[in-house]
Amino acid sequence: MRKTDFTKALTEYFSIYLPTTCGVSPNTTNSYRDTFKQLLLFFQEKKGISANYIELRYLNMELVSEFLDWLETSRHIAVTTRNQRLAAIKAFAHFVQYKFPENIENCVDIINLRPKKYEKALIPFLTEDDLSLLLSQPDASTRQGLRDLTLLALLYDSGARVQELVDLRLKDVRLTHPPMVILTGKGRKVRQVPLMKDTCKLLDRYIRSFHSDSQSQMIPLFYNAKKQALSRYGVTYILKKYAAKASPVLEPQNISPHVLRHTKAMHLLRAGVNMIYIRDFLGHADISTTEVYARIDAEMKRKVFEEKVPNYTPNTTMPWEEDEDLLQWLTQFGKKTF
């Protein structure tokens, strides 16, 4: 295999820098890996350059912009994914500029690239009735139903990210007072999340049924037939399966594990819980991330007020403003015509 400065840099970046120097999580590493797999494919398909012949000098602002446009148009990725790919390349550029300073100019140009703006959709969440309907679908009298109900109830009650849920080990659950679950989030940050009484009862029943013979506290809390931890896709499948049973009230295509996290946040907000507590509960690094729920709640309340509350403010529209012909004439009045 022919080695260029690019192959050397990429190898060191993934094998040493990310896991050892930065200590990033496997999920972050996998996300960065996917970015560079697509970049290698772009070089092969669009530039006719195989991976063994790519050099660092080829990686400049123009090429990265072209690569991102190619992802969006040819691979049909969302703008959010495009921006994630850009973030991965920027992180690599930060590494390269110090390891291979002869490429610093290109690296600085790449680092200064701005993410693409997009219109953010309203955060989806379930009402209390929708959530009750969803959690009523699993049959807890069966072994599988008990597991699925416990999983969904814990996913909501803890506000966990799906990866945080599948990473849970038996040791991370404490049912003695005060009951809590210990979640390991982004950047390996650990937080303790209190559990509600009904969720504790479900967990106690589930653990006695599924972990009665467990020899180690390190066994995954939720596992498959092979005693391996459920994957994120496995959790999503379980959730969508029960959402489909609750159709047409719930739409499976619009339900995801993260929707339950949004739901918990909105329910806490509407219960009057302090924003700082919600931030810590969700494991947000910045309060501005949490404040998006308050903005959504305020917008929804405004719409309800407009629909339900009588409007006593007098109409200030002038009569001539309703006459389109007159309005057009006044708009053009005084303008020179040639």
Automatic annotation (TrEMBL):
Residues 4-97 form the Core-binding (CB) domain. Keywords: DNA integration, DNA recombination, DNA-binding. GO terms for biological process: DNA integration; DNA recombination. Residues 121-306 form the Tyr recombinase domain. Transmembrane segments: none annotated. Pfam families: Phage_int_SAM_1 (PF02899), Phage_integrase (PF00589). One of its GO terms (molecular function) is DNA binding. It comes from the Bacteria. Site-specific tyrosine recombinase, which acts by catalyzing the cutting and rejoining of the recombining DNA molecules. Belongs to the 'phage' integrase family. This is Tyrosine-type recombinase/integrase. It comes from Subdoligranulum variabile.
